[in-house]
Amino acid sequence: MQAHLFASVAGGKVELDLCFSCHGIWFDPQENLKLSPAAVVALFRLMHTHRGDVRQPLALKMACPRCSQALALCHDTI
User: Fold this and answer.
1) Per-residue pLDDT tens for 60-71?
2) 3-class secondary-structure state, position 43
3) Distances 31 to 4, 5, 50, 70, 76 between C-alpha atoms, Å
4) Tens-digit pLDDT profile for residues 40-59
């Protein structure tokens, strides 16, 4: 997993944790809403450059890369 900075709609930066092996993107709360439109394009371009990387399946139970607590499957809703 690697941390990458992307432009924010507020003019700052948003740090996202990306895993190119599983194509996972870790968003902290509301981070997806903070990305500028250009950042979304940059994120998908970056993921696309790693499309040929060796893939590893996701584990049934996963831990947060920062605090090691169990991750819960969720979906963004507005």
Assistant:
1) 787 877 788 888
2) helix
3) 13, 12, 22, 19, 11
4) 999 999 999 988 888 877 77
